[in-house]
Amino acid sequence: MSTPRAANPFARRLPGRATPDDLRKMAWAPSYRAPRACDFANLPAVELPDVSGEERELLDAILADVEADEPRLRYAGFVGSDRIRAEVLGNVTRTASLDEAFAPWSARDLVYRRGFAEGMSLAGRSFISLGSHLVRLTPLRELRLVAVAPFLNELAACPHLGRIESLDLRGNHLEAAGVRELAASPHLHRLTHLNLATNSLAADGVRELLHAPWRGRLRGLNVADNNLDPAAVDRLLEEPAFADMVELDLSHNRLGPSLAEKLPRTAIVCLLKKLSLAGNGIGPGGASAFFAADRLNTLTDLDLSFNGISPAGAFALADAESFRAARVLDLGFNDLEDTGAEALASAGNLFHLRELNLRANRIGPRGAKALGESANLAAVAKLDLAANHLGDAGAVALLTGDGLEGLRELDLSNNGITAAGVRRLIACGGLRGLELLSLAHNPIGRNAAGLIRAGGDFTGTLLL
After folding, report:
1. Domain boundaries, the chain
2. What pTM did the predictor assign?
3. Over the chain (464 residues), what is each successive 10-residue block's mean pLDDT?
4. Nearest C-alpha neighbor of 119 from the set 164, 65, 69
5. SS3 142
6. CA atoms of 134 and 140, how far apart (whole Å)
7. HSE of 310 in the Cβ direction (CA atoms, 13 Å)?
8. Which of 6, 80, 128, 427 has the most crowded Cβ, counting Cβ within 10 A?
């Protein structure tokens, strides 16, 4: 019988019960899945780098005006333009790095702009304990925090939170009490984007958010998967402080058709560029009501996946007079079938579309042929048709039509395409111009990659 693992003393200990030494250690391995207490026995002392002299002055100038190019160019001249990225990378990783054994809890997902790390993911304990040093080394503006729920009161009190413009707290189970702590923070005066997805907010969490004095600065808000009821969403949509919102995610709250019917009538929709209503069960009726509105002219990115809008919803979209600015459209998992694909192919309002997701819509050869011949979709560069019913005939029809002139990335995984279909695509030149092609989970045989490469028309990335 296996020996049970020792309980992790840091897993659910609240800040008030933890000693200063506990918290120092948690800053280096700060997760609900953190190592056991005995794993900390030989942990090296925390050494935080800093800079001084002329370099300190140059960094301070960058931190004072993160948009300006001139301070960054001066810093590049100081460290040597060929070394700036390495220098900054070294500073950031030394600040938040761990021993190799603790690598899963170190700074991750570093986002670099003009030589400096402006975005990263950290555990909550790391940012609270080390963040004041970190923000002196790089103009950090975008932050994702994990394992932060027990420390929300400390996080809200952190002065270095005042540097953050985009805060991602998804999946932390903050609940309404956590949002209350966050709302009371005096340091979120720069915050413009907030991700609270999957935090069990419910109606009380929305109420706390609407009391936040900094809410009027928000331009992007994600409250997906929070068990919100229609009344809570109505309060959010009718909040005057949100009238300048440009990104909104209400997905996976199971709000039904009423959401799609009410949303276009609220002030919040007037400036929206990016909207996700995925997984709300709006159905064909909700889709028809949504696309009948005359206030959709600013939307450039729309996600209606997992809504069962059916072919009727596709026809409503194709007839929408005000929906003409779309660049990204996700209609995956909507039972569109061939009829819905034909409706989209005939839509005269999708000329600007660059990305189209039609994954898992039971589209067959007829629908694929309509898409492949559509001049209305000539600007589409990325098309996802995975998990449909194209088969060999549909794949060939899609890629030999005279439409889709701009197509560069195509996902045809799980479509029943065979080796014979691959040979037909090669013979007709259907792969010419593609930069990425996925044929994963198709019965195409082991030699498919060799056949495609030998054909000479396809030189891009191939996923099998």
Report:
1. 97-209
2. 0.84
3. 34 41 51 41 50 82 86 76 46 36 48 78 81 83 89 91 95 94 96 97 97 97 97 95 96 95 91 97 97 94 98 97 96 98 96 97 98 96 97 95 93 95 87 90 85 78 86
4. 164
5. strand
6. 8
7. 8
8. 128
